């Protein structure tokens, strides 16, 4: 199990016309990924979602807060002693084309990490090949076909499955999947999402799913949790199905409203929210979403809302939002037959 | 046509949007295994003033089809057969040299895939606009800049500021709008957008789709949107053409194609779209993988290897595209006119 409390991160940009500039990427983010659990982070580019994934995978430092892996706070360990813990978290990139070395066969790509694993666990070398075959079968591809081939000989979907198999060589507890299907052909996306769901159930591996497309989050498991990130802050969180069906934060509503309606199969929601074009960065101290929020009031410009249940639907559902004026709006499409 | 029209909107109202008729188009690419067709025997009519979406996965031939509208297929590709008739311009595939160069930009505007990366990083947008004007012998650069500013303002941007910017100073959504401006500023009446929303955030995508629709209507355009994203097309298009393995397998009004898909590929694709509503257990990926030039079957239906309705005839005979009541379907199993098919077969 992995938890994060109060994770904050600020990037310092050098140069530029205005000189050095501080860009907060994450603001006081709390989360927990349980064994076999599914947690999705939704946000646009610049929301901090990729930075969060990299921090959880140990590839990026953070300025404040604590990451706890299997009960051990990472801040209590030296950099070297942290590594075995962070190896339990494996990152799957968006781009399966650049994640694999083009000059190595799939066999070679899996052999290196499996040899390391064999040494760590005292297994014989003969284990390596059988494990490679086992992992490829587990991710739904034919080992005999794939092992001798180079990445360019495989389709995008197959390559992403190889990347997932490679991540599994380390027997991870959590897979961090950062936009893992956005470069996959549409007809194959559900296959990758179903695979992640299947790995949760079969191996008990937790999945931290990072995406800009809320709809995909449903498909790694309807028991999942959803976090909506806006400029580094969690603005709404709760059960995935609940947040999609009953969002109350205007930003979540804007994201859901932006998802195209499949005319002929669906009708648009009656209260789709169109956010304003951002004008400037907003004032210090107020709600971060004020510059784009169609519903902001004077209070939103003066005070900063924190994540909580007040006024929302979360009295009995755990749903939380960071908004002074949470309100239900029907924003998602309705099936024509419903 | 005058060198430059200062008030494109007024001009648009007086002008009919042109129709586009693609007939029996075949485009081949030279490979070590011989010339292989990326687009084969495609008929597609874009009705004047409509937005047609062409949906396809990688290897479907959709980008090759789009380039054919500009007669801009590059070697090792070659347009082997067919015609692309545009009202007021004739068959684009017979144009050469100066006529072709004029047509690109003035008659047919093209917004390239990943417009985010198709701008020159070393020149301001304004400088690139003037380059465009010079290469098309625009006599009044000031009017050109004015039109560009108006177009950018129409798309919700500060035109003067954008023209002074370099591409790295603009966000992905802003660059996409710049791409649209450059495609429209010479008053093209036929516009091709190749993957206009790929790599954009959801909210930005919604904004771009709305802008495409609005500008299309205001300027009386005939628009072709090429994409892998059924949702993007569903939101913006009037008609939907589905491509697979170089063939148009289904074509018709977007609500009908989505609401009552006939071709097994279209049905499979719709089932495979992650959606916000609906039963998760009914959703599934299509088995198999999209074909590449090298794996396309030499005869028979291009989709048969992934098809749940496959029959013996599909192995040997390529199904012809049959048009009935405004719907076109190329399928032995489901392509027959509705009245000849038992209703239960369609469920």
UniProtKB/TrEMBL annotation, chain A:
Pfam family, one: ABC_tran
Record-annotated ABC transporter domain positions: 2-256
Keyword Lipoprotein attached: no
Name the UniProt record assigns to this protein: ABC transporter domain-containing protein
Lineage of origin: Bacteria, Bacillati, Actinomycetota, Actinomycetes, Streptosporangiales
Domain of life: Bacteria
InterPro entries: AAA+_ATPase (IPR003593), ABC_transporter-like_ATP-bd (IPR003439), ABC_transporter-like_CS (IPR017871), Oligopep_ABC_C (IPR013563), P-loop_NTPase (IPR027417)
Xref: SMART domains: AAA (SM00382)
Entry-linked NCBIfam families: oligo_HPY
Species of origin: Microbispora amethystogenes
Keywords: ATP-binding, Nucleotide-binding, Transport
TrEMBL record, chain B:
Sequence ranges assigned to domain ABC transporter in this UniProt record: 20-270
CDD domains per the UniProt record, alphabetical: ABC_NikE_OppD_transporters (cd03257)
GO MF term set: ATP binding
Membrane topology: Peripheral membrane protein
Keywords assigned: ATP-binding, Cell membrane, Membrane, Nucleotide-binding, Transport
Origin: domain of life: Bacteria
Protein location: Cell membrane
The UniProt record lists the keyword Iron: no
PROSITE patterns linked: ABC_TRANSPORTER_2 (PS50893)
Family membership noted in the UniProt record: Belongs to the ABC transporter superfamily.
NCBIfam families according to UniProt: oligo_HPY
Record's protein name: ABC transporter ATP-binding protein
Native source species: Microbispora amethystogenes
């Amino acid at each position: 199990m992995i938890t994060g409390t109060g994770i904050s991160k600020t990037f310092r940009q050098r140069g530029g016309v205005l000189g050095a500039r501080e860009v907060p990427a994450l603001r006081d983010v709390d989360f927990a990924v349980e064994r076999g659990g599914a947690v999705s982070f939704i946000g646009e580019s610049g929301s901090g979602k990729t930075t969060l994934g990299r921090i959880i995978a140990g590839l990026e430092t953070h300025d404040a807060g604590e990451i706890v892996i299997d009960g051990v706070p990472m801040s209590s360990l030296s950099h070297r002693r942290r590594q075995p813990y962070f190896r339990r978290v494996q990152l799957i990139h968006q781009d399966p084309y650049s994640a694999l070395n083009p000059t190595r066969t799939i066999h070679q790509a899996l052999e290196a990490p499996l040899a390391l694993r064999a040494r760590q666990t005292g297994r014989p070398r003969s284990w390596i090949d059988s494990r490679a075959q086992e992992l490829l079968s587990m991710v739904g591809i034919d080992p005999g076909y794939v092992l001798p081939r180079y990445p360019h000989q495989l389709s995008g979907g197959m390559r992403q499955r190889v990347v997932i198999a490679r991540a599994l060589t380390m027997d991870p507890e959590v897979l961090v999947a950062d936009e893992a299907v956005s470069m996959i052909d549409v007809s194959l996306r559900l296959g990758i999402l179903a695979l992640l769901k299947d790995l949760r159930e079969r191996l008990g591996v937790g999945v931290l799913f990072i995406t800009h497309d809320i709809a995909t989050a449903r498909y790694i498991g309807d028991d999942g949790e959803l976090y909506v990130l806006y400029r580094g802050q969690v603005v709404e969180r709760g059960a995935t199905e609940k947040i999609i069906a009953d969002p109350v934060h205007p930003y979540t509503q804007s994201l859901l409203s932006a998802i195209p309606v499949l005319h002929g199969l669906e009708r648009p929601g009656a209260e789709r929210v169109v956010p304003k074009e951002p004008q400037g960065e907003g004032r210090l101290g107020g709600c971060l979403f004020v510059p784009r929020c169609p519903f902001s009031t004077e209070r939103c410009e003066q005070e900063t809302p924190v994540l909580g249940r007040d006024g929302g639907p979360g009295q009995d559902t755990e749903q939380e939002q960071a908004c002074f004026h949470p309100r239900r709006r029907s924003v998602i499409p309705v099936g024509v037959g419903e | 046509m005058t060198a430059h029209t200062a008030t494109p909107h007024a001009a648009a109202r007086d002008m009919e949007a042109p129709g586009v008729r693609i007939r029996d188009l075949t485009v081949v690419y030279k490979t070590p295994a011989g010339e292989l067709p990326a687009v084969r025997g495609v008929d597609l009519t874009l009705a004047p003033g409509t937005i047609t979406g062409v949906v396809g996965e990688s290897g479907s031939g959709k980008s090759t089809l789009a380039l054919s509208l500009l007669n801009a297929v590059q070697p090792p590709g070659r347009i082997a057969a067919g015609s692309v008739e545009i009202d007021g311009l004739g068959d684009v595939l017979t144009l050469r040299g100066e006529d072709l160069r004029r047509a690109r930009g003035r008659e047919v505007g093209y917004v390239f895939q990943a417009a985010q990366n198709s701008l020159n990083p070393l020149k301001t947008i304004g400088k690139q606009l003037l380059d465009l004007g010079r290469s098309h012998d625009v006599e009044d650069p000031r009017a050109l800049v004015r039109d560009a500013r108006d177009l950018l303002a129409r798309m919700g941007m500060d035109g003067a500021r954008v023209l002074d910017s370099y591409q790295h100073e603009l966000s992905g959504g802003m660059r996409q709008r710049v791409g649209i401006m450059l495609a429209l500023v010479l008053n093209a009446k036929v516009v091709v957008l190749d993957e206009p929303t790929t790599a954009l955030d959801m909210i930005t995508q919604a904004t771009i789709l709305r802008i495409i629709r609005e500008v299309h209507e205001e300027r009386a355009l005939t628009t072709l949107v090429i994409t892998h994203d059924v949702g993007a097309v569903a939101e913006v298009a009037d008609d939907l053409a589905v491509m697979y393995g170089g063939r148009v397998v289904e074509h018709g009004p977007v609500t009908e194609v989505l609401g009552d898909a006939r071709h097994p590929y279209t049905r499979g694709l719709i089932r495979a779209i992650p959606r916000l509503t609906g039963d998760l257990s009914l959703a599934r990926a299509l088995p198999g993988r999209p074909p590449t030039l090298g794996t396309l079957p030499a005869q028979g239906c291009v989709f048969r290897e992934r098809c749940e309705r496959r029959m013996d005839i599909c192995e040997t005979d390529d199904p012809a595209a049959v048009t009935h009541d405004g719907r076109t379907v190329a399928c032995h199993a489901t392509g027959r006119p509705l009245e000849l098919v038992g209703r239960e077969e369609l469920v």
